[in-house]
Amino acid sequence: MITYDDIREAYRRVSGVVHHTPVLTSRQLNTIAENTLFFKCENFQRGGAFKIRGAYNKIASLDAEQLRRGVVAFSSGNHAQGVALAACLLGTHAKIVMPDIAPKIKVDGTRAYGGEIVFYDFEKEDREAIGRQIAASEGRAVIPPFNDEYIMAGQGTIGIEIAKDVAELDYAFFPVGGGGLISGNAVSLKHHFPNIRVIGVETESANDVYQSFHSGTIVRIRPPKTLADGMRTVAAGDKTFEVIRALVDDMLLVSDTEVVDAMRLLYARLKIVVEPTGAVPFAAVLKNQKNLRHKKIAVVLSGGNIDLQPFFDHLQQSAVVS
Questions:
Q1: Within 228-307, where are the H helices?
Q2: What DSSP state is assigned to residue 90?
Q3: How far apart are CA 12 and CA 311, in angstroms?
Q4: Of 44, 98, 146, 167, which has the fewest CB atoms closer than 10 Å, so is most exposed?
Q5: pLDDT tens string for the chain (322 positions)?
Q6: Which DSSP letter does residue 223 get?
Q7: Within 10 A of 259 (CB to CB), how many other CB atoms are there?
Q8: Which of 3.90.550.10, 3.40.50.1100, 3.80.30.20, 3.30.450.40 would CATH assign to domain 52-147?
Q9: Which residues are tagged catalytic?
Q10: Residue ranges per domain, the chain?
């Protein structure tokens, strides 16, 4: 299992490359939630999401020959951009396997950073198999989206930044796709805040880690249909799940409708754009299944990469329903 020393080394490696993203607060949102909330805004990160942290840490660990041959990754969008950007910064070439339903903003961002995209059929093809076939035929290094110690340690640098900016915390809520974000940060946050409770959140249809957590064994699901495209993974990795079982305190579920309501509230009160996956943990804080009151809670907003027309369409529909 990764250690805090791994995360501290990752922090040394990525410092000066990634942004130390801000922590925002809102008295109105605190009143609504009946808790004191600290929003860690990775939507302001390079590439629009936290993924550059792990991608850079992993690619920077490769030797010169591996960098010469290039890298390959598979991603719904944010990891694609993180890998493409990290590869560009480190002087190598990235080929990215992306679903044919990936948001345009994530496709455009990946290409803007120099990534070469290979599309696949989201419902019929296996992205990991395609990526590993490319790696074998072209000699590229695979940069996994989550199930890798360097990736997990890189994502865990968020926890170090939170500890620099927030003196006390009772809880931290994270969105969960494959588990790289929550696993790395469960290690770093529990180092800095020994009594903190780390909570993972998925959408109702993308509930593979929720099922795995509550059953004690990795559960694999069909590709889920959810607004939170960062949660369209089908199973946690063995490395991420090891940490989740050991250090994560609970897994919760929210509906897509609750996610959109959270996006609307973040836009209305904080004036920020957060993509559906990034709004998932705030949706869970608002739903408050754990009946929390007067707690200090870190809410990790993992990204802000969403096409603007769908974003405003979601908000308008949410306002009509409300």
A1: 238-247, 256-270, 276-287
A2: T
A3: 36
A4: 167
A5: 999 999 999 999 999 999 999 999 999 999 999 999 999 999 999 999 999 999 999 999 999 999 999 999 998 789 999 999 999 999 999 999 998 888 888 899 999 999 999 999 988 888 889 999 999 999 999 999 999 999 999 999 999 999 999 999 999 999 999 999 999 999 999 999 999 999 999 999 999 999 999 999 999 999 899 999 899 899 999 999 999 999 999 999 999 999 999 999 999 999 999 999 999 999 999 999 999 999 999 999 999 999 888 888 888 776 655 4
A6: P
A7: 31
A8: 3.40.50.1100
A9: 51, 76
A10: 4-49+150-321, 52-147
- Tell me if 184 sits within 8 A of 5, measured CB to CB: no
Question: Side by side, which strands form the sheet with 94-99?
Answer: 116-120, 94-99, 71-74, 141-142
Question: Token pair for residue 313?
Answer: 């369409």
Render 114-167 in DSSP notation, one character per residue.
Answer: TPEEEEE-TTTS-HHHHHHHHHHHHTPEE--SSSSHHHHHHHTHHHHHHHHH-S
Q: CA dist 163 to 5, 48, 160, 188, 196, Å? A: 16, 22, 5, 9, 12
According to CATH, the topology of domain 4-49+150-321 is Rossmann fold (3.40.50)
Q: Look-up: residue for tokens 């996956």?
A: 277
